[in-house]
Amino acid sequence: MRKTLCILLAALCGLSLSAQENDREADSLRYAYGRQQVKNSTRQSGTAYADTLDTGSPGVKVVLYNNGTYRFVKDPARMAQEKVFTENWDTHAVDPYRENPDKLPERFSLWIVDTLDSYVCPNVTRPRSKFGYRHGRRHQGIDLPYPTGTPVPAAFDGKVRISRYVAGYGNLVVIRHASGIETFYGHLSERKVEAGDWVSAGDIIGLGGSTGRSSGPHLHFETRYRGAAFDPAWLIDFESGTLRHRLLKVRSWYFNPNQRYIQDVDDEDEIFRTDEEDRLLAEEQAKKDAAARAAAEAAAMRYHTIRSGDTLSGIARKYHTSVNELCRLNGIKTTTVLQVGRRIRVH
What we know:
single chain; about 350 residues; alpha+beta; 7 helices
């Protein structure tokens, strides 16, 4: 098995090198990979493992399980040192960023799951209460039916930032992920992790319940980025348990409290355009807009043919404009002698 793993690792490194040699090809592969959906994993938390091997790549290890399977994983010790897990880290505040969502870029991308990450849907079901305002109060996540005592898995690999009782949420666990996204798990009857714990997707972080402001047993699930909540349905199709895409293309309006997931909001080709394609399209659109403005301006132009006895003041009164405006439009002065038969622009 070790020989097989070494061959796989070498292949991965080779792909990385070739991608670096050809930026355009790498960009194409990156977005093609990002568009892939990820099915709900059936990995069971607590599967016994036999050994952990180094790979020769910093931060990457191989976990060998007793059932003969294995997976490449990121070294939690190294991951915990990443900036995303140190900046704005607060084990008490629900929103440690305290930023206005309007300060976020108009559009940006977040890798949700890469080749070394895993994903488990919190619960494959039809959401009971969706994102948005509910009874005049902002509902910043979705509610998933969840019987009391049912194990709740972490959706993605990450580090537990909060594990405590919070008014409204009841027993709450908040996990920050390498993408910068945080997932919230509220109304738990019991918490199984502590702040600072590293968890893998599928690890049990608590049990379903109805603590806090709750009308019955369910899981309140939120997704936030830098403290700003957005509809979890942008990430997950809960009815199938599928992660919609490995790469999340974020739009600033996702953070509008009234904005829910819209299935046909954009054509996927638009959503997954590369930054270079966006730049070229923006330039093309700017040219079209400029041409349209020029055409509209040309269509709005009006002219007057000078006749004997015409004066600038008389022409200005006739066309409801001013002498100064006539001079500006035609590059003349108030003292310019008007020549009979000459056409001057009046609008």
